[in-house]
Every structure is written in structure tokens, then in C-alpha cells.
Amino acid sequence: MVLRLLILFLFITVSSQAQFWTENASSFPLTSTGLSKIHIVDDNVAWATGYDGVNPNLNVQRFSSTSDAGATWTAGNIDVGNSALGISNISGVSATTAYVAVYPTAAGQQGGVWQTTDTGANWTRQTGAAFNSAASFANIVHFFNANDGVAIGDPASGFWEIYVTTNGGASYTRMPSANIPAPVTNEVGYLAQYTYLGNNIWFTTSAGRVYHSADKGINWSVFQSPLSDFGGTALSGDITFSTASKGLIQDNSGNLFITQNAGATWNTVTISGTGFPYGGAIAYVPGSNRVVSTGGDTTFAGTSFSTDNGTTWTNVSTDQHVDVAFLDENTGYSGGFSTISTQDGVFVYSDSVLSTYDNLATQGFSIYPNPTTDFINVLSNNPIEKVAIYDLNGRLLMSPIKTGFINVSSLSTGAYLLKVSSNGTTNTQQLLKN
Q1: Does the domain formed by 359-433 have CATH 3.10.620?
Q2: DSSP 3-state of 167
Q3: 3-state DSSP assignment of residue 97
Q4: Tell me, what's the pLDDT at 14?
């Protein structure tokens, strides 16, 4: 069943922007530092890396983390003993412990995996994830929990350099070539281009392929995606999964492709609605049909969301958003740019719109925001025929309304009954007016 979002674009752009995200300080000391490669540990803890938003080619070794659900962030340096080494991504397991994948930027350098156990004050190289050949290039480190982790690098010695640990990085084992489908000619991975869910992890390549492991990086399969390259100059893409089977690819033009079999086959998504995906980063709310897209390009910047696996989109922001990640329907972050160390740089999800859709399955429609102070939007599985608002004594106050966008600012503070007629039936929900 196709979900129809009956919302006015102007209101969403102006009003929901303030509701969907709250921008807090990333605490990076330099202006125009971007926050990216977000890893959410739990509903309180998240880590991210920083980069130079003016000249992204400049090497930056910085991180920022939160332990209070994004209200405050603490930034620091990632000191790996060589300021020329690049930081691929960061993966946290607690408020104090995190890992970074580190890559060489010049011949003769050695990257690998570094760990902090004191909230970034000190970083120690984990020698078990060797990455010590001339071809070694660490793209990804990911920890599924405090013990189980995987580090993924480009092919070295003829096969992908992938290490697995089961003891928090005290030791690593390189996965044999028999466990990993061989790379094609000149195929490489990309920095932090991966997604994960439970014991599953996927990473993408320069050949437009998607590698998948369902057992925390031990055994792998590979599938061709609709893209020819996930990180090219003209073509690039991002990937996200809602379940072990259902996932989306978004390319840099905002085109979408969906899989229902962990990436084995992909189909084009026909896009509709008052919004559109932005072609930058994309993230499912795990276990749902809800997905958020962001864009960081100044000519294609913003945030939009879909509640039906990318078919129907609603725009909520026109700010630059360079990354996006969601833990669940209540916890999500997006990267922005710092202005001063006490202002801006990280967007914290602060709306309820992504959790209102459960009512659609049982009652046929949903209201947001609810409670409200001025406007509401009514989302329905079917075209809305009429909306009526009653007080608790059954007196009709507003009707007939034939749109999903309603100004209720004239109502007094209190509880009301909102009735929606759609597809020949009428259903009722309570509306709270602040």
C-alpha cells in the first residue's frame, strides 16, 4: 500500500526544520570543521570524526563524542604518533572506548587500527591488525560489541585484507582468501563506506560491488550493484539496511535502488512526494520502512525522510548535512559544520515524526506533531476525504477539511478528537493542543 503524505512543502521547509533537528555544538575548536562518520553506540553514546570543511583534502585527526544523547559533545585529537596518517572512521563501544581505522597518505607509512580506552586522551595501535604490506590500506574498523570487531582494508597479496577479533582487539586473525570472494582488477574499497545491522556488515567498492558478511566479518559474499562505482568523481553512492535483507542504495544524484535479499538483486525505486532524496548520506531507522537522506553539497543540501522505503519523500531542511545515522526511531544524528567551539556542528534528531507511523497500520492515519501549538499534518494510507475536529463533548469545532495540513492555532489548550474519513471509513485519534 502506497503511503500518501499530504503535506504542504512550504510548511515542511520552514516549520519542520526546527522540529526535526536541533543543532548543538560539536566542540571542534576550529570553524568550518565538519562532523562525519558517525557511529552510535547506544541511546546516550555516539562518536564521530572531524574534517576540514573548507579544504577537505587537508589531513585532520580529530574526533568528537557525546555521552548524554547529543546534548553536549567533547572534541579531541586522535594522536596516532604521525600527524600525516589519515583517519578512515571511528567505531565506539562505550563512552570511554573507541577504535579508529588509520590509512597511509604516502609511501612508507603504516596504518592500521588504534584504540582509546580513556575517551580519546591516548590512542594505542593494535598490532594484531597488521596492515603492514606495501599495499595495505585500512578503510574500515567496526565493533559489533565490546569484544567482536572487524577491520577491512583494500586487497593485499591478492585478496582483501580483513581482520577479525573476538577479544576487543587484543588479537586479530586475518580472514583467508577462501572466505572472501576475490577482487576484480584494480578494485578497492573506500573510506568508511559501509553499513551494519546486528551481526551483518556490508562494504562497497570501486567496481560498484557490495560485499556482505552475516557472521561479523568471517565469511563473505559479493553482489554487483546498479552502480559502476561507489566513490568515483562523477558517480558515488551510499548504502543502508533496515533488516538483514532489506536495504537501499542512494547515488549522488538522489536515485534509489532497493534490495530485499541482502544485496543479491536491486530494483529502482520510483520516487514521489513533496520532497526528494539528497544524494549524500542515507540511513534507515533499523527494523522499519523509515529512511532519512541528507545532502552536504551547497547546491544540493538538506534533509528529507520517507516512511515507505524511499518511495514518498518529505523535505524538512535545507541546511548542509554531511552525514546521517540512526540507532532507532528516537535516536539519530547528522553532521554539520562548526562556527565557533560553543556553537553548531552537529544535528540531533528531536522530532517524533519517525515514530508516528505505527498508527498507520492500526488506525489508517497518523498525526504529527502531536501535541502541537499551531499546525498539524495528517498522514493517511489512502486519500483523505474529510477531516473534522471535535471537543471531548462531541461538539464539532472544525469541518470539513479536505487536506492533511491544518492550522489549529485558534483552538484552546486541551484535548480534542480528530476524525479522518478515508476510503469510505472514519477513524478517530486524540489531538493534544498546547
Answers
A1: no
A2: coil
A3: coil
A4: 35
